[in-house]
Write a structure and sequence with these properties.
Blueprint lengths: L1 H10 L2 H17 L4 H7 L2 E3 L11 H7 L3 E3 L8 E7 L20 H18 L3 E7 L3 E8 L2 H16 L10 H11 L5 E6 L8 H13 L3 E8 L1 H4 L9 E4 L6 E4 L1 H25 L3 E6 L5 H14 L2
Parallel strand pairs: 3-4, 3-6, 6-7, 7-10
Antiparallel strand pairs: 1-2, 4-5, 8-9
Helix pairs in contact: 2-5, 5-6, 7-8
Length: 310
């Protein structure tokens, strides 16, 4: 029995999951209207008749029935810092923090997404780093390409998924972003996974922190991670509920259907402001629904990378 349990854990690892997600996505791109772009991005090119087959990607051939050659000659040297908000609100909805539970809460989604980006960057021979914060910057691993470094980052992501003490971890996105901006020595792509729930700081302070990253010559993608059915559409039963702030413990008793219209107007206004202000700073802002998979994240990344190489 212990052997079977070890095998089960091995085959449900984040790294194996990430490999499957990335390979599936890239295969889909080769069959989609993004075909030419994906080939350029994934460091493949079409095979030319008569040349050596040494660098043919046979695995990709098995999936697409088309010959592509892996390009190892030119390294892109992209440095990417993956930043994850680990505050209590990211563990919403409560009750699905394990791997086998699926993408049912925001931290689960963010950790699996970050692992997938790590694998994607690794296939490109690009460097990835990991920062994790709540009230303070708890983990900051600078971008590297070594396999041992990636294993260390995967271990930290595993801890996020397996964490059961999810209450009373407040957020200070502003302080974390300022620290990260000062601790990335070279121009990098910074990818932020957060629900942007931070009642302790003003929106202007958040924009200044994001602008700090841009001032230091970093490119930025913001993924606002949400469960849209619950957090934006308020799809709860039409009856009184007790809502608990996971970060402060504050409770509120109400029937969400009575405030649905006003609530949605307020959230839409907040989203518009985020999108417009990020656009002014040259930051790519994306509202992400955890129930819709990872493709929107990868497409946003491809678009940003394309801009960076022009």
């Amino acid at each position: 029995m212990p052997i079977n349990q070890n095998l089960s854990r091995q085959y449900s690892s984040l790294e194996l999951f990430a490999r499957g997600v990335v390979e599936g996505f890239l295969t889909g791109l080769h069959r989609s209207p993004y075909h030419g772009f994906s080939v350029e991005f994934s460091e493949h090119r079409a095979y030319n008749t008569g040349e050596s087959t040494k660098n043919v990607d046979w695995k990709l051939f098995g999936k697409t029935e088309r010959l592509f050659v892996k390009k190892y000659e030119e390294e892109t040297n992209l440095r990417c810092q993956l930043v994850i908000d680990n505050s209590s609100s990211m563990y919403f909805p409560v009750g699905a923090t394990g791997r086998d539970a699926g993408m049912r809460n925001k931290i689960d989604f963010a950790a699996h997404a970050a692992a997938s980006f790590m694998f994607l960057l690794k296939t490109q021979r690009d460097a990835s780093g990991l920062s994790i914060y709540n009230e303070k910057l708890n983990i900051h691993l600078p971008a590297k390409v070594a396999n041992s470094h990636q294993q260390l980052m995967m271990q930290e992501l595993d801890k996020l998924i397996e964490n059961v003490d999810v209450n009373n971890q407040k957020t200070n996105t502003v302080q974390a972003l300022h620290e990260i901006a000062e601790n990335i020595p070279r121009r990098s792509l910074v990818i932020l996974f957060s629900d942007l729930f931070d009642s302790a700081t003003d929106k202007e302070e958040l924009f200044l922190a994001l602008q700090h990253l841009r001032y230091n010559q970093h490119e930025v993608i913001v993924f606002n991670v949400t469960d849209q059915a619950l957090e934006y559409e308020l799809k709860f039963e039409n009856r009184p509920h007790t809502f608990v702030d996971m970060e402060t413990g504050e409770k509120l008793n109400l029937n969400p259907s009575q405030l649905k219209k006003q609530y949605q107007q307020a959230t839409e206004k907040f989203e518009r402001e985020l999108s417009v202000r990020c656009g002014q700073f040259g930051i790519d802002y994306n509202l992400i629904d955890i129930q819709k998979g990872f493709s929107p994240l990868f497409l946003a990344y491809l678009a940003k990378r394309s801009k960076m190489t022009r």
